[in-house]
Amino acid sequence: MKILLPFLALYRRHFWRLTLGVILAVMTLLASIGLLTLSGWFLAASSLAGIAGLYSFNYMLPAAGVRGAAIIRTVARYFERLVSHDGTFRVLEHLRVFTFSKLMPLSPAGLAGFRQGDLLNRLVADVDTLDHLYLRIISPLIGALAVILAVSVGLSWLDWQLALALGGLLLLTLLLLPPFFYGMGRPTGAALSRLQAQYRDQLTGWLQGQTELKLYGAASRFRHCLDDTETQWQEAQRAQASLGGLSQALLLLISGFTLVLILWLCTGGTGSETQPDALIALFVFCTLAAFEALAPVGGAFLHLGQVMASAQRVSQIMSQQPAVSFPSAMPPIAQGAQLTLRDVTFSYERGRTTLQKISLTLNAGEHIALLGRTGCGKSTLLQLLTRAWDVDSGEIILNGQPIKHWDEPSLRAMTSVVTQRVHLFSNTLRENLRLASAESDDEQLVAVLHQVGLEGLLDNDQGLNAWLGEGGRQLSGGELRRLGLARALLHGGSLLLLDEPTEGLDAETEQQILALLQQVAQNRTLVMVTHRLQGLHYFDKICIMDNGSIIEQGNHAELIAKRGRYWYFHQQLAL
Ligand code: ATP
Ligand code: MG
């Protein structure tokens, strides 16, 4: 239950709205009971008056009461739905934004352990499930308690013994049924949450991996797994529904038993009467109506297991601390980008060092190329410069300030990055470019597309409005890289970090891009990861990396003269 406390605390923000919802719910229930009770008594009393030949029976007052109760019930029900749903949606809205804001700073380290489908499920379905907490659990429970109290006190004016018997039985039902069904429903509730997440996760994988699954003939196997999960999920839903049915049946049984008991107790007369009279109908109908108020309570606790499982899954995200945190502000920093790395060591996992004592100095405006075998840690080094991760030991200093002292907006404004895997958003060409620089106008966007040789993307009726990615035009690997480059150019930071920007390009385009880079990066500091040896003589420094360390550094001429690894790469190329 402790797991629900942080979520219950959220209700405090909308306390009055939710309290009003509960008050209206109680009013609806009491009006329902009043309606049934009064009409029962009214009918019985009128017929008895008829039999006894009493023509002075006042039927106006009870008739007005019945009508009033019916109107109150309808109006209160309407506003109760309006207010309580509005309150719950406000809590959910807050919860969703809160969860999302907790999620963002976790990327990438904190989210590495979650699958995409699973994450989406936690953010959408699990947060949704939490609305049961108020609508299906808290509100009905308070409503039922209030009804029991009102019915017992109300009836005790007429006959305290009968009121005590009915109130006692109602209270006993309220105390026993929920824990019983909570215990019964807990395993299925947890299974429901788990299977729903598993199904969504598998479905996302199945949809995203269609091409591979078809090419390798594995689609039907995957489909079977998906179907299996779906069957189990349906099974859990069936079990939950059966328990719901059982709770209703049990309540009906208890209600029937209580009804017979009350009827039997009434035979000796009600209140001061020793003969049965019209009040019997009042007590009987009141019993029926009061049990109706209890109807959602047994089922409510069936959902508690599912709510708790969902709460746990959402808490798992919310309780994580980001691996990297940024200060809120920093002193003003000089223009240009001067970079120093001092003995930088980093590992993703304990016991497997990815970068080992990397030391490097780059003056503002210098260009450096990082070269090395696949997996030697080049992209990792670039990621440390963007603070996707923090170093384990050593220091990265940017413009005289340790990078840890940089606030996030300043660091992002300073660095323009082309990652190894450029992400294409399912959006227009314009928005795919403008994410790097929101204030760029169409003219600038078109100019930069020409610069990177992507003017072909404008050859359609929609121009910059053309849809890219899902539901639109897909880009080839080379086009994607150039789009990444276009973003970096638009962004215009003083430090350019490029991860294999010419990978997948033909020789001619590669030459063009390298020439463009030399031109646009003239007064900027450039760190470029590459596997290619073309155009490296332009660079002020070339670092050869191996196994997480820098094994050679110098300019093209120095490294060729050294006859080390760089020279060897050139020899291999010449063969
Ligand atoms: P390539 O030339 O193929 O791009 P790289 O030099 O850029 O290679 P990195 O991507 O820096 O190599 O990876 C260095 C090592 O760290 C690799 O062994 C890789 O498997 C591992 N690695 C990379 N990212 C992660 C991660 N998020 N979690 C754990 N290990 C990782
Ligand atoms: Mg890489």
Provide a brief overview of the structure.
The protein is α/β, with parallel strands linked by helices and 575 residues long.
Give the arrangement of secondary structure elements.
Elements: H1 5-10, H2 15-51, H3 60-103, H4 116-129, H5 132-156, H6 160-208, H7 210-215, H8 219-266, H9 279-318, E1 339-346, E2 355-362, E3 367-372, H10 378-385, E4 393-398, E5 401-402, H11 408-414, E6 415-418, E7 427-428, H12 429-434, H13 442-451, E8 467-468, H14 477-491, E9 495-499, H15 507-520, E10 525-530, E11 541-546, E12 549-554, H16 556-562, H17 565-574
Parallel strand pairs: 3-10, 3-11, 6-9, 9-10
Antiparallel strand pairs: 1-2, 1-4, 4-5, 7-8, 11-12
Helix pairs in contact: 2-3, 2-5, 2-9, 3-4, 4-6, 4-9, 5-6, 5-9, 6-8, 6-9, 8-9, 13-14, 16-17
The structure holds adenosine-5'-triphosphate and magnesium ion.
Adenosine-5'-triphosphate is lined by residues 112, 348, 354, 372, 374-380, 420.
Describe this entry's structure for a reader:
- The protein has two domains: about 1-320, ABC transporter type 1, transmembrane domain (ABC transporter transmembrane region fold, Up-down Bundle); about 340-425 and about 475-575, Rossmann fold (3-Layer(aba) Sandwich), CATH 3.40.50.
- Helix 15 links the parallel strand 9 and strand 10.
- The protein is elongated, with a radius of gyration of 36 Å.
- The relative contact order is 0.08.
- Helix content is about 60%, strand content about 10%.
- The chain has a six-stranded mixed beta sheet, with helices on both faces. The protein has a four-stranded antiparallel beta sheet with strand order 2-1-4-5, covered by helices on one side.
- The protein has helices at about 5-10, 15-50, 60-105, 115-130, 130-155, 160-210, 210-215, 220-265, 280-320, 380-385, 410-415, 430-435, 440-450, 475-490, 505-520, 555-560, 565-575; strands spanning about 340-345, 355-360, 365-370, 395-400, 400, 415-420, 425-430, 465-470, 495-500, 525-530, 540-545, 550-555.
- With about 575 residues, it is an alpha/beta fold.
- The protein has 17 helices and twelve strands.
- Helix 2 (about 15-50) runs parallel beside helix 5, helix 3 (about 60-105) packs antiparallel against helix 4 and helix 4 (about 115-130) runs antiparallel to helix 6 (about 160-210).
- The two termini are about 70 Å apart.
- Adenosine-5'-triphosphate (ATP) binds near residues 112, 348, 372, 374 and 378.
